[in-house]
Amino acid sequence: MSSVIEAAVAALQEKVPDGFDGVVKFVLAGEGAIMIDRTGVRAADEEAGVTLTADAAVFQAILDGTMNPMAAFMSGKLAVDGSMALAMKLGSALS
Q1: How far is residue 73's CA from residue 94's CA, in Å, rounded to a whole number?
Q2: What is the pLDDT of residue 1?
Q3: Strand blocks (E) in 29-78
Q4: How large is the C-alpha radius of gyration of the chain?
Q5: Which residues have C-beta within 8 Å of that of residue 77, sequence separation ≥ 6?
Q6: 14, 11, 39: which is closest to 24 by C-alpha?
Q7: CA–CA separation, 4 vs 38, rounded Å?
Q8: Residues 92, 86, 82, CA angle at the centre, nearest 5°?
Q9: What is the DSSP secondary structure assignment for residue 19, as one 8-state letter?
Q10: pLDDT digit string, tens, across residues 73-95
Q11: What is the rounded CA–CA span in Å between residue 66 and residue 30?
Q12: Burial of 74 (0-12, 13-18, 19+ CB in 10 A)
């Protein structure tokens, strides 16, 4: 597992509460994937209700609050494949 994925998992564990209602996959281009579900946050690549794809810099900006997830999506920096409602629910959890 890359150090970028390790750091991202740790950051998400601080922001997303256990018991998140849904299954989300974050794909960090060139680094790997992170799963968020009822059991918590972990490095893995599994089936999900929504897959969010971005590069590591965009992901970090979303986590640290310097980039709004919706703005990242609208500008094409964040791709969403699957349930937009679930993506928005995660966006609220990250805020």
Answers
A1: 15
A2: 66
A3: 32-37, 40-43, 50-54
A4: 12
A5: 54, 55, 58, 67
A6: 39
A7: 23
A8: 140
A9: T
A10: 999 999 999 999 999 888 887 76
A11: 22
A12: exposed
